[in-house]
């Protein structure tokens, strides 16, 4: 397990991760872009104002990814008491790094920082993982209210209306 982690660290250190997060799009402003396409990464951007946070929504593709994550290993939490909005968390073992990274690239528009490595002990065995959190945003608070009752995660009554092929794929 340690050998895998060291191998990943060598790969990650060997190139600048932020280069993977930027989509270079040159335009004269005359083409039509489908809503929710070409969302660029917001990693390392400063804190959003309340006005900007309230404008951010999850397009159907991204909402499907988040719902799929919530039905599996993802969770929504409040960062701390003063935060009025929730954030999405996602963690995977380092052996699933490729899947984890593909999810992070999709959701990096909603993140303020790069993922970080974690270590935990489960059933007496140490496991290494990698996780990320999104920014605390009203769009995640809406999903929190759907999936959580009294702080416990569950399946919403109207799950049929939330399931998409993208959600089922995650």
Q: How many strands in all?
A: 6
Terminus-to-terminus distance: 25 Å
Uncertain parts: 1-26
Overall pLDDT score: 83
> Hey, roughly how much beta strand do the residues contain?
15-25%
Q: Can you list the strand order of the major beta sheet?
A: 1-2-4-3
Question: What is the CATH superfamily label?
Answer: Homing endonucleases
How many structural domains? 1
What's the overall geometry? globular
Along the chain, the helix and strand elements come as HHHHEEHEEHEEHH
What percent of residues adopt helix (DSSP H or I)?
25-40%
- Architecture, according to CATH? Roll
Helix count equals 8
**What profile does the largest beta sheet have?**
4 strands, antiparallel
Radius of gyration using CA atoms only: 17 Å
Furnish the topology, listing elements before pairings.
Elements lengths: L1 H12 L4 H4 L28 H6 L4 H11 L4 E4 L7 E8 L3 H11 L8 E7 L2 E9 L4 H10 E2 L2 E2 L5 H4 L2 H5 L1
Antiparallel strand pairs: 1-2, 2-4, 3-4, 5-6
Brief digest:
The chain is α+β, with helices and mostly antiparallel strands and 170 residues long. The chain is 37% helix and 19% strand.
Describe this structure as you would to a colleague.
It is built from eight helices and six strands, in the order ααααββαββαββαα. It is an alpha+beta fold and 170 residues long. It has a single domain (2-6, 39-169), classed as Roll (Endonuclease I-creI).
């Amino acid at each position: 397990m340690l050998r895998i982690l060291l191998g990943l660290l060598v790969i990650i250190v060997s190139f600048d991760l932020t280069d993977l997060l930027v989509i270079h799009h040159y335009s004269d402003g005359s083409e039509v872009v489908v809503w929710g396409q070409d969302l660029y990464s917001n990693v390392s951007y400063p804190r959003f104002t309340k006005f900007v946070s309230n404008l951010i929504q999850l397009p159907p593709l991204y909402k499907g990814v988040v719902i799929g994550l919530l039905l599996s290993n993802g969770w929504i939490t409040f960062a701390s008491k003063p935060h009025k909005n929730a954030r999405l968390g996602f963690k995977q073992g380092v052996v699933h790094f490729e899947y984890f990274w593909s999810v992070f690239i999709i959701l990096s528009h909603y993140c303020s920082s790069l993922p970080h490595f974690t270590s935990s002990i489960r059933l007496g065995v140490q496991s290494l993982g990698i996780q990320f959190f999104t920014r605390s945003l009203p769009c995640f608070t809406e999903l929190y209210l759907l999936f959580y009752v009294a702080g416990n995660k569950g399946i919403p009554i109207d799950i049929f209306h939330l399931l998409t092929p993208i959600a089922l794929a995650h």
